[in-house]
Specification:
The complex is a heterodimer. By secondary structure, chain A is of the alpha+beta class. Chain A contains 14 helices and 24 strands. In chain A, a hairpin with a 6-residue loop joins strand 2 (57-58) and strand 3 (65-66). By secondary structure, chain B is mostly helical. Chain B has 14 helices and no strands. In chain B, helix 7 packs antiparallel against helix 8. The longest helix of chain B has 35 residues, at 214-248. The two termini of chain B are 26 Å apart. The chains are: A alpha+beta, B mainly alpha. At the A-B interface, helix 4, helix 5 and helix 11 of A face helix 2, helix 3, helix 5, helix 7 and helix 12 of B.
Chain lengths: 528, 313
């Protein structure tokens, strides 16, 4: 209470003096880099959304694809759909005062197309983009490798300033990575303890009402919650589920949904011993009691009407247009079905399940950072599988190893099962997760256990070739049922992410994935 | 005592070797890890250009070339740029930013330790306080640091980087460091018992008979041991500073080393660990010097004449 008065006093003083309040918030960690070509974490993406503008983005209010940089009324499709002629809006300036031009757009594309730019993000765009030419200082022509039904969807990258780089072979370890120059609503730099942001007002396309922001690294969740409640901080980007009930009753704090479209899974090594058999994978699916898992690891309350967690049966969240509602999720253990499937796969039970005379031993790994949201999930899963008759060996995988090895398919020899989470923006393209890995064709880049199924591959091609939204939807519905049957993943659930902000912070719109897309509207008010 | 010079010489040798050995060990570690650090940013299966990055970081020509290049640059105070902690920022800048905070922290933490040492030398406080001192000695640094962090974070989370928040954070961290893991009680009890034992030596009794004070006689003899003890306390504080800075969120050198290690930023780790090694070397040199001076002082002490020994008899 005392702190609230202090904060109120601070706000009042600020109003009288005419200075803006610095909005301070906790994020999971500090950004690793402020150069968007080298983003590896969600924190990076959120920070980049403040410092930079994406060429196109989805409006968080109505989902429409729009741009702050491009005058859409003058955009033209050329070369039978293979090129887009983009005209830049007037009056856009970089943080350093220089004018934003078509050179900057083409520089960004050229940097991504340069194979000497060591960026996985650039690698992704190389699959779609062919070239960019500057036609006038405010007109750029972007050419794609093929015709897309939604070409602008392929242009949602952050734009870099040409003037800040000496070559299109952009390197990650330059000063730009901690003191970037963008066109975004905020400018600033990163420090060792916090990232700071200051409003960028000398431009026509942004007018943030918040003067300054500070992103600090999250502390212990209980300390974060107390700090927020007593007014020493304004916001927390991600509140763990077990702390939400106490904030829900707090009048000075508002809980807001952050739609990350994230779903949790257990990837199965389809090339490893008994897991190569579809029946065994299906049996594992029936051996898990997801209901108990979510109760014990997330603190799910059966009476909670606004459950933060909903089960899924395929690689999409239930609210997605791609989710196939005809495939029901498996909620409880079904021992009878599991045993029948294991017997059918040729396994024998003698206390434990045996495969070719040896007990089935499952090496299970989990992305360590998931433990913050679902405490003990790894142990609970191992317990359930042990109960079902499997020997288990568990270990947590550091975030670095997860990004470097797990999702790039380099842990196939070390693990049989990997527990992880995928997060998506509006574009829920899952092709990279299930397509047969091919480095030359840029396919299956995130295929964890190098799963390969020709039927699934052809469905993914169907999606790629779809020229209409319905075509894409039908392909992914089919993919959903194929994966629910073949089970390269055991699909677990979608877990809501909730943010908490002080009531003084008004007009908060949290956009999916990038979070701060609509920061221009946010403001701090004296009244709660 | 003919070979009194061996110990200080050995210390001086170790002091010279440490700053060369530490980066060599870290270089060996980099090469013993699977893959190379450039692959963290650019995993080969989903990225191209990793070779260029490896070359940029001098990782492409083997450990000797890397070590040689790093050492020659470090001698010119060029520690390169941070690879991941604050990507692109010169490591020397990061060190210049964080070292003062660590020095302030260690400086403040040394206050209770120094006061404790002086009290101990004068046989204070009395032994009935020993139970309190023993209790203080069992408080682990992690527990105290967590307590300090919670208090500071709850009250000064928003203003922790400057002004009052900064100083409260520093004081809490220094107090933690100066008390935890037996730092304070060790200095009191250690000095007290050391001087107590020395006071029982025959020469002290003689000096008292000559009308001199205990302290002026015992101090020169204990100088080497005292400096050694102080050196180990500072080294202990330096290692404790890593824990305290991380938990209490002090923007110090220890926290920088920790972040560098966690993020596999070998640019930062190499420089920070080498600076730690240099600090340790400096302290070793100082101890060796004091030992040399002490021995020289003892050797130039006047020899007792025949008459004076007969008086004593």
């Amino acid at each position: 209470m005392k702190k609230s008065w202090m904060l109120g006093g601070l706000l009042l003083t600020s109003a009288v003096l005419g200075t803006a309040v610095e909005v301070q918030f906790y994020d999971e960690s500090l950004p690793i880099t402020l150069n968007p070509l080298f983003a590896t974490t969600m924190v990076d993406n959120r920070a980049h959304e403040l410092y930079f503008d994406r060429l196109y983005y989805n409006n968080p209010t109505d989902n429409s694809l729009t741009s702050r940089l491009i005058d859409e009324s003058q955009t033209k499709i050329e070369d039978a759909g293979k090129s887009l002629r983009l005209t830049i809006k007037d009056g856009i300036n970089w943080h350093n005062g220089k004018k934003f031009t078509a050179n900057d757009i083409c520089f960004t594309i050229d940097a991504m197309l340069n194979v000497r730019t060591p960026s996985p993000i650039a690698h992704y765009y190389r699959e779609h983009l062919a070239s960019c030419t500057v036609e006038k200082s405010n007109v750029a022509k972007v050419t794609f490798k093929r015709v897309y039904h939604n070409p602008r969807e392929r242009l949602k990258f952050f734009v870099l300033p040409k003037s800040e780089f000496s070559s299109t072979a952009v390197q990650p370890d330059t000063e730009f990575a901690n003191q970037p120059v963008g066109t975004g609503p905020m400018k600033g730099r990163m420090g060792t303890l916090a990232a700071r942001f200051e409003a960028h007002t000398k431009t026509s396309h942004h007018s943030p009402k918040i003067g300054a922001m500070k992103m600090s690294q999250a502390q212990d969740p209980a300390v974060q919650i107390s700090t927020l409640r007593n007014g020493a901080m304004h916001g927390i980007v991600s509140v763990p589920p077990i702390y939400r009930p106490e904030l829900q009753t707090e009048s000075e704090v508002q809980l807001r949904s952050y739609d990350l479209r994230s779903w949790w899974f257990i990837a199965l090594n389809t090339t490893s011993g008994p897991l190569a058999s579809k029946e065994v994978r299906q049996a594992l699916n029936y051996s898990l009691d997801r209901s108990e898992l979510r109760e014990k690891s997330i603190g799910f309350d059966k009476n909670d009407k606004e459950s933060p967690c909903e089960f899924i049966s395929g690689p999409f969240v239930q609210s997605s247009a791609y989710y196939n509602h005809e495939v029901p999720p498996v909620e409880f253990t079904d021992k009878r079905k599991a045993e029948a499937l294991l017997n059918a796969a040729g396994l024998e039970k003698n206390g434990l399940w045996f495969h070719e005379g040896k007990p089935v031993a499952l090496r299970i790994g989990m992305d360590a950072k998931l433990g913050k949201e679902a405490t003990d999930l790894l142990t609970q899963i191992a317990n359930q599988l042990s109960e079902a008759g499997f020997t288990t060996r568990i270990s947590k995988i550091s975030s670095d190893d997860w990004n470097r090895k797990a999702i790039t398919g380099q842990l196939t020899k070390e693990y049989d099962m990997l527990i992880g989470k995928w997060s998506f923006g509006i574009n829920e393209d899952v092709n990279d997760l299930f397509q047969t890995r091919s480095e030359t064709k840029f396919q299956g880049r995130h295929n964890i256990f190098n799963y390969s199924n020709p039927e699934v591959d052809s469905t993914l091609v169907e999606y790629e070739k779809a020229r209409t939204t319905d075509g894409a939807k039908n392909a992914y519905h089919k993919l959903h049922s194929q994966l629910a049957d073949d089970l390269p993943y055991l699909f677990l659930w979608k877990l809501d992410t909730k943010s908490a902000w002080r009531a003084e912070v008004k007009d908060i719109t949290i956009s999916p994935y990038y979070y701060f897309t609509d920061i221009n509207r946010w403001y701090v008010s004296k009244s709660k | 005592m003919k070979y009194w010079w061996i110990q200080p010489s050995a210390r001086a040798l170790v002091a010279v070797a440490l700053p060369l050995l530490v980066p060599a060990l870290i270089t060996a570690l980099i090469w013993s890890l699977p893959g190379n650090p450039a692959e963290i940013i650019c995993p080969p299966s989903i990225c191209t250009g990793g070779e260029e990055l490896a070359a940029r970081w001098h990782l492409d020509q083997g450990p000797w070339a890397f070590y040689g290049h790093w050492m020659s640059s470090a001698l010119q105070l060029d520690f390169g740029d941070s690879w991941r902690v604050l990507t692109g920022r010169p490591v020397i800048e990061l060190m210049a930013q964080t070292i003062p905070n660590t020095l302030i922290l260690i400086g403040f933490a040394l206050i209770p330790i120094t006061v404790g040492s002086v009290l101990g030398a004068f046989q204070q406080p009395s032994k009935r306080w020993d139970s309190v001192l023993v209790f203080l000695s069992v408080l682990p640094v992690v527990v105290l640091a967590l307590l300090a962090a919670a208090i500071v974070e709850l009250n000064f989370a928003g203003s922790g980087d400057d002004g009052l928040g900064y100083w409260v954070r520093m004081m809490a961290a220094a107090l933690t460091l100066g008390i935890a893991d037996g730092a304070l009680s060790g200095s009191i009890l250690g000095n007290r018992s050391m001087f107590e034992q020395e006071n029982q030596q025959r020469y002290v009794g003689i000096s008292i008979l000559r009308g001199e004070s205990n302290f002026s006689n015992t101090l020169p003899n204990l100088a080497g041991a005292l400096v050694g003890q102080y050196r180990s306390r500072i080294v202990q504080l330096l290692s404790g500073a890593v824990i305290v800075e991380v938990i209490v969120r002090v923007d110090g050198f220890g926290a920088l080393l920790w972040r560098g290690t966690l993020m596999q930023d070998f640019g930062v780790v190499l420089a920070a660990a080498t600076v730690f090694a240099c600090l340790s070397s400096g302290l070793l040199f100082f101890q060796a010097l004091v030992e040399v001076l002490q021995n020289l002082h003892q050797r130039r002490a006047p020899k007792l004449t025949l008459e004076s020994t007969e008086v004593v008899r």
